[in-house]
Amino acid sequence: MSDLANREFSAPGRGRGLKDALNNRYLLKLLVDKEIQVRYRGSVLGIVWSYIKPAVQFLVFYLALGIFLGLEKGLHNYSVYLFSGIIVINFFSECFSNGARAFVVNGALIKKIYLPRQLFSLSTIWVGIIHFLPQILVLIVACLFVGWTPDLKQIAAIIVGILLIMLFGLAAGMIFGVANVFFRDSENLVDMFLMMATWLSPVMYSWTMVAREVKFPYIEQIYMSNPLSVAVELFHYAFWQPTLSPEQQLGLLNEGNWHMFPHLLTVWVPIAFAVSLVLLLIGNFFFRKFEGNFAQEL
C-alpha cells in the first residue's frame, strides 16, 4: 500500500512525447499503412500520382521560367537544377501539411482510445518518404543521362539533406498540428507558408540572385538560415553540380556564384539543423503542454 501511495502518477491523456512514439514502432507501421490505404482508396493510379504531380510541376515551371523567362540560359542543366529543388519542396510540403492536419484528421482515434499521439506526426514523415522515393529515383536516372558523377561527399549531402527535411518538416508540422487542434485557421496559414516556401527558396532561381536584387543588410545570411534553403542547396550540390563540366564549374566559380558553397557543409548545414532542432523542441513543448486537452477540443 505504501508503494502505491508513493508512486508518481501521470496526468490522464498525457505521455512522454517522442519517447513513447519511438517505442511503439508497430503502431507507427499500422498508422503509415492506414494513411496510404485511405489516401489511395478508390484511386485508379494509386502511388503513380507520386510521379505525375512533380512531372506536371516541372513542366510548368520549366516552360514558364526556363524557356519563357530565359533562366535556362543562365544556368547550365537548368532542368536538373529545377527538378532537384522541386522534389525537396514536395517532400517538405508533404511532411509539413500532413503533420499540421495529423491530430485533427485522426480526431476519432484520439477521442476513443489513448495511444502516443506523436505517432501521428511521425507517421506523416514516413508517408512523405514513401512518396519521395519515386521522385528521387526519377531524378537519379535523369542525372545519369546527363553525366552525373558524384563523389562521396555529394552522396553524403543527399542523406544529410533528406534528414534535414525530415527534422524540419516534423518540427513545423508538430507546431502547427497543435495549433490546428485549437485554431482551424492554422490550415490556411500552412497553405500560405507552403506557397511562400516555393518562391522564397532557391528552387527556380539561383540564390545569388537574392544578393544581387535585394539590397538589405545580411540578406544572404538571413536567406541561408532557412533550413529549406540549405536543403535545396544540398540537393543542388549533390545532383546539379556533378552534371557540370569542369569548365562550367570554373566559369561559375569565377563569376562568384559559388562563394558560399565551401561553407555549405561546414557552416550552413549545422545552423539549419540547430534551427530545426530548436523548432522541434518548441513543438514538443507545446505538444506536452496541450495534449491533455486534445480529446476535449476535437
From TrEMBL:
> GO MF terms on file?
ABC-type transporter activity
- Would you kindly state one Gene Ontology biological process term found in this protein's UniProt entry? lipopolysaccharide transport
For this UniProt record, the keywords arranged alphabetically read as follows: Cell inner membrane, Cell membrane, Membrane, Transmembrane, Transmembrane helix, Transport
Q: Does the keyword RNA-binding apply?
A: no
Known InterPro entries for this protein?
ABC2_TM, ABC2_TM_bact-type
Family, as annotated: Belongs to the ABC-2 integral membrane protein family.
Identification of the protein by name: Transport permease protein
